[in-house]
Design brief:
With 478 residues, the chain is of the alpha+beta class. It is built from 18 helices and 12 strands.
Length: 478
């Protein structure tokens, strides 16, 4: 049977449109199980829908499996999947076939590479697993790998201009682990590194200042190390005095992971080309005040002509949509006192800022993609005209608009992301006498409060780590 080209176009468009849902929409059932606290059902869903076990979403598959196992307390299995994810990140290589296909379709056809902050969160959850397994040495290695990984990532950016060049929370974790092991010298160094990251990176870029608890830990570890000059220095700097604790008490480090991070959706923007200096064209968008000079002097004459012909173009980009947590503050009630938890990591803010930076860096790639599609469209139109003349066919029957339609449909953003990361992370450290303690975690939003009672055994001169994940988040506005 011979189909008219117009019918073929309709079939192809239908097939492509079937895949137009965002990644969040495709994972909605899994996400629903998670937010309803049905973690075992979420795990079963992953097992049944394992087509991503191999292929372009393999990295995300192991990230999700690792997170679900962590939630279920299966820390060894969690680390197995997260280790696989970590290796996939380290071994990522651009594959020419996928890159070429992406030029005539969209970035979503390529294996998922992960955002920078997602890459280091793999090591964060591995560190949590090692903490629960009592392996502080392994946890320190993973926390240190966060800072090393970010250094490597930053070295790839031009002039090292990457606002997420260090992770303050990673240094806090390193400090807490050395602290728990009685290595107060290295703990002090890690806490001081965290303070520098908050002051030099987090405050300006993510609007997050150093927590009070970090300042207290700097003073305490400086004192325990015998760095009395540093104690005096930081007392003046922070405006607080170091207070000694009962040495027979134990420590509780309580970490609250609140809600879930943003999901990716899509937006598109139209640019108009204006002539630039020799070798340059400039694309502008007045609505957003965006101007991108684009150097084409190093390209072939044919490519330069194609790019200059792109007087108006539409490019699809991913964008984050926030999932606002139901609760925005928390405290612990214990031994007739209330201790607030402090924000130590805002993954939501980091996600928005780093994606914006990446889009600015990748505009040239997006422009090349659109130019390649347009060149293919022009080539098909020219071939169609020649074929029509030779065969005396009606050009309308051959449907020269096929490539135009497909180009419009395939101009999509890559909306994949790791959707079980927390929106934000809070913590505190409290000193408690040895024994069992009933601790109440109160989460609140100013109008409603939710209480959770947790029983923990505190040992003298030891540190107990506890992580609580709140699942309550508002749905994203897609």
């Amino acid at each position: 049977m011979k189909f008219k080209p117009s019918v073929v176009v309709l079939i192809m468009a239908t097939i492509i449109l079937a895949g137009c849902a965002t990644y969040y929409q495709k994972m909605l059932r899994f996400q629903t199980y998670i937010m309803e606290g049905e973690i075992e059902k979420a795990q079963q869903w992953l097992s049944k829908n394992d087509k991503d076990k191999e292929g372009k979403n393999k990295l995300l598959y192991h990230m999700y499996r690792g997170w679900v196992s962590w939630m279920m307390g299966d820390y060894n299995s969690s680390n197995e999947d997260l280790e696989t994810a970590d290796l996939l990140i380290e071994d990522f290589r651009k594959q020419i076939g996928y890159e070429a296909f992406a030029l005539i379709s969209n970035p979503g056809v390529k294996p998922y590479q992960a955002e920078d902050f997602e890459k280091v969160m793999v090591n964060y959850f591995k560190a949590l697993n090692y903490i629960q397994l009592g392996n502080y040495e392994g946890a320190i290695v993973e926390a240190r790998r966060i800072t090393i990984k970010l250094q490597k990532l930053n070295s790839k950016y031009k002039d090292h201009k990457n606002r997420y060049s260090d992770d303050a929370f990673a240094h806090v974790i390193i400090g807490m682990l050395y602290d728990a092991d009685g290595d107060y010298n290295n703990a002090f160094i890690a806490y001081r590194n965290a303070l520098e990251a908050y002051e030099n990176i987090y405050l300006d870029n993510f609007g997050l200042a150093a927590p009070l608890q970090l300042k207290k830990d700097i003073l305490r570890t400086a004192y325990l190390t015998g760095f009395h000059d540093e104690v005096d220095h930081y007392e003046q700097k922070f405006g607080i005095k170091y207070e000694k604790d009962d040495p027979d008490n134990g420590d509780l480090v309580f970490i609250w992971q609140n809600g879930f991070g943003p999901v990716k959706s899509e937006w598109s923007i139209t640019f108009t080309m204006v002539p630039g200096d020799v070798g340059f064209v400039t694309y502008t968008n007045e609505e957003y005040g965006l101007t991108f000079p684009f150097y084409i002097g190093d390209r072939s004459p044919g490519e330069q002509a194609q790019l200059r012909d792109l007087s108006i173009l539409r490019i699809a980009f991913p964008k984050y949509v926030e999932r606002v947590p139901v609760f925005n503050e928390a405290s612990l009630d214990l031994d007739s006192r209330t201790v607030p938890l402090e924000l130590v990591e805002n993954i939501n803010n980091i996600a928005f800022k780093t994606l914006h930076d990446r889009m600015l860096r990748e505009f040239a790639n997006a422009l090349l993609r659109v130019a390649t599609k347009r060149a293919l469209e022009i080539a098909v139109r020219e071939a169609t005209k020649e074929q029509s003349k030779e065969n005396k066919l009606d050009a309308g029957d051959i449907a020269p608009a096929a490539i135009t339609i497909l180009n419009a449909i395939t101009e999509k953003a890559d909306t994949r992301n790791w959707q079980t990361l927390p929106h934000s992370i809070y913590y505190t450290r409290v000193k408690l006498p040895e024994g069992d303690h009933d601790i109440r975690l109160n989460t609140s939003n100013g109008q409603q409060t939710q209480a959770h009672t947790i029983t923990l055994n505190i040992r003298k001169k030891k540190t107990t780590f506890y992580v609580f994940q709140s699942l309550e988040s508002h749905l994203p506005e897609q």
